[in-house]
Specification:
The complex is a heterodimer of chains A (250) and B (234).
Chain A (H helix, E strand, L loop, with lengths): L1 E9 L5 E10 L4 E5 L6 H8 L6 E6 L9 H4 E4 L3 H4 L5 H12 L4 H11 L15 H13 L5 E5 L7 H12 L4 E6 L2 H7 L2 E6 L2 E7 H6 L1 H6 L20 H5 L3
Parallel strand pairs in A: 3-7, 3-8, 5-6, 6-7
Antiparallel strand pairs in A: 1-2, 1-4, 8-9
Helix pairs in contact in A: 4-5, 4-6, 5-6
Chain B lengths: L22 H16 L4 H17 L4 H8 L3 H9 L1 H29 L2 H10 L4 H30 L11 H27 L16 H20 L1
Helix pairs in contact in B: 1-2, 1-5, 1-9, 2-5, 2-9, 4-5, 6-7
The chains are: A alpha/beta (250), B mainly alpha (234).
Chain lengths: 250, 234
Amino acid sequence: MIRARGLRYTYPNGITGLDGVDLDVAHDERVAVLGPNGAGKTTLMLHLNGLLRGTGSLEVAGLRPEDKALRARVGLIFQDPDDQLFMPTVREDVAFGPLNLGLPDVEQRVATALETVRMSEHADRAPHQLSLGQRRRVAIAGVLAMDPSVLVLDEPSANLDPRTRRELIETLDAIDRTLVVVTHDLPLAAALCERSVLLSAGRVVADGPTREILDDEPLLAAHDLELPAGFDLSRLAWPRCPRAASASAP
Amino acid sequence: MSGGHLHTGVAGDPHSPIHRLDPRAKLLGLTGITLVAVSTSRPAVHGACALALAAVAVAARIPPRTLASRARIVIPALLFVALLIPLHGVTAFATVAPKALLGTSSAVLLSATTGFPDILHALERLHAPRLLVLIAAFMYRYLFTIVDETTRMRAALTARGYAPRHALQAQALGRVATALFLRTYDRAERVHLAMLARGWREQMPRLHALAFRRADALFLAALAAPLLAVRIAA
């Protein structure tokens, strides 16, 4: 589904975002992209949708970054839902993507997407009238309505209270798509993704089953990551599913 | 979620015949009343305009108290004009005051019967400059977000003992304004990225088309015919 080779990107101010990323993600796989602040996680996410174009090769769902159709195949969910919800009402915002892409049955798509994230009853409200958790769910609906093959989420659990965070995990868990979760919330990665990729200074420094990566305390410490105090990996219900089989063989 | 921003300004009975009209009809009708009012100083015309506005308010079942409290916004401007009475005489005040009141009441009635997104949609369909409509749409969407950010920054200043006593100490407010501008600029870039990510094509897509029906034409005719007749006769 995703195949990147030697992906490099330098920002106009000279800061290196990506420094030769190799990454493979299989169809239906759920992958967490972990890393400290400034590791290049968001830069990588913006590449997957063609919003940034570096050097090296990248192919997502059989499409290259310059292909306009890529926008429809890769759904990006930004860290701050206020950046993503710019239309006056929830319904219009969810319809924004499908209308731009000229997709059929927009109303039905909007209804289904809002139902998936349990936000149907808020369709006619303005985004600023919603709580942060609700706005994040609407942002997910806005992308689901475009029926993408891959869903890429940037720090989906940022600033959420524990209950809203759990509800978001349940919502994401119910979505049947290839999922790339960019985060430094390690328990979230453990709850959702069977495989993790550790990015540091624009490079992939570890790639393997989430449990193994989170169990490697020295590796996490070397890249400014750590599990919350008292977090017990052995008590976690690990993502089970046929996906796990494909996880180790991208 | 920040509280206090829950109502979008629509008042009265949302199922009233006025609320259900095409926003273009309301925009044109109420703007028309304002134009007729400001085009003359004849009390008869102003009276006719006031009657027309009252009829719209009654049909929309908007409580007079709501109208009065929203129209209060015009009072400071009227007081300012009143201060100029010694210079320009009472006549000038008597000319300006009814026009200002009628114009404000028209705008208040429009916003009480039509949601802001619908007004923007109407403006777009009436071929108002697209860029201006877009700017207004983003301002409406992000105004509350920016107000919340400002409130948080002011709280942060106060929490660290900021209590300006003279003008020189106000420079911190300038820094807050700068920080707010930079944050807003950054947000604008992120919003643009988010729009591109969902296939933005320089045109705001609309889920529902507006429909101009017979009731809309009747509403416009019912306003225009008597007002224009009084205006021409006066």
